[in-house]
Q: What sequence folds into this?
């Protein structure tokens, strides 16, 4: 095996499943409506299910994890149907967190804290699509995707010092900065299609900030996996690991956008 094949040994598998996910996701974002809400709710349920499975010793995941994932999906759907109010969102998220923690045999604290964040991120993403429209939502998603792609290639080609080796040994500073630059490029490209954006430079800066939020979402999930002692959240997505491994960055970005909107930004 050459060094090149070692660095990109998973590329073909990641690319194939990634293109399928991207096609379905971008179509759902653009058309919105019940289909978008249902897809986001399903993803939230799968992520909570993976988290619940990680913090128990049962393999395969048992009834408790299935119930928890289903509860997360139902909470997101009901919260969206009720208008995604802050009280309804928070209450539902806390219920899911309590369910995950109750079923955990260990690591109850990260489970109890992270599960509600997944539900809130999903609910706020649905609300953002409904209020801001498809182009703004595409901007959010593309920033996350560009951050991930740029980080993947820069980290493997350039390498260099680790960003946070105690938590995520593979994440490098070169990949992190490349993610910021790629996100800024997305902001520059999307700016002409967002006439209500404050300014082009403001959108570029916001894109870089959202990129950092996405990276922190990845870091948080990596910290939980490291604490629990697993490599991937599951094997549901070939080349990517689990749904949580693929969408942890979107969780971080959606949470930041939701908080900014709550603050009136």
A:
């Amino acid at each position: 095996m050459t060094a090149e094949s070692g660095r990109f040994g998973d590329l073909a598998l990641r690319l194939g499943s990634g293109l399928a996910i991207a096609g379905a996701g971008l179509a759902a974002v653009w058309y919105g409506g019940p289909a978008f809400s249902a897809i986001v709710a399903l993803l939230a349920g799968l992520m909570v299910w993976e988290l619940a499975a990680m913090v128990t010793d049962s393999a395969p995941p048992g009834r408790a994890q299935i119930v928890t994932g289903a509860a997360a999906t139902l909470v997101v759907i009901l919260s969206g149907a009720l208008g995604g109010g802050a009280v309804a969102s928070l209450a539902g998220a806390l219920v899911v967190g309590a369910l995950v923690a109750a079923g955990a045999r260990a690591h109850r604290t990260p489970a109890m804290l992270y599960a509600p964040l997944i539900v809130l991120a999903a609910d706020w993403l649905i609300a953002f699509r409904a209020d801001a429209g498809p182009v703004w939502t595409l901007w959010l998603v593309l920033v996350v995707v560009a951050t991930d792609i740029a980080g993947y290639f820069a980290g493997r080609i350039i390498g260099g010092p680790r960003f946070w080796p105690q938590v995520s040994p593979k994440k490098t500073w070169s990949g992190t900065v490349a993610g910021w630059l790629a996100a800024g490029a997305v902001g520059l490209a999307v700016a002409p299609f967002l006439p209500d954006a404050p300014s082009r430079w403001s959108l570029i800066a916001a894109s870089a900030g959202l990129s950092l939020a996405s990276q922190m979402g990845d870091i948080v999930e990596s910290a939980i996996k490291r604490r629990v002692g697993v490599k991937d959240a599951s094997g549901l997505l070939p080349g990517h690991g689990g749904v949580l491994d693929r969408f942890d960055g979107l969780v971080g970005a959606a949470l930041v956008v939701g908080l900014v909107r709550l603050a009136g930004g």
Remarks:
- Residues 207 and 242 are 26 Å apart (CA to CA).
